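hey so i finaly got around to running the thing on Potassium transporter Trk from Microbacterium horticulturae. pasting the sequence first so u can double check i didnt mess up the copy paste, my clipboard has been acting weird all day
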Amino acid sequence: MVEEADKPAPSAPAELIEESVETVSVRRAPKMLVFLVLGAALGVLAALIFTYGFGVFDATGAEQSAYSAVSYTSGQVFGFLVLVCGVVGVALGGIVALILERTVGRRTREVQVGRERVTTVD
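ok and heres what it spat out for the 3d tokens, dont ask me to read them lol
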């Protein structure tokens, strides 16, 4: 019978640590997705205003087209305008984000970063 004290202790793996200091450039950039979503939301808001602010609906809730004899409900008009205004809003949001990236992105600064790499050797 072998006792616990007689067993050899397992050897712990050795660690090799390498440290270095590097210089990196840091710049601030706007988050593109935020501007695209904000542009789409403003496009939907504009479609809502265009639909119910300027539309002429009859008692059934339909609007007569000026170019054809077709009547469109307020929901259909809103849907059409959301398609157009949403795309325009996303495009304008993207353009604003690109302009901000060009102007704010020019200001970069150099910082020193400490880097540590740990490698275990069995």
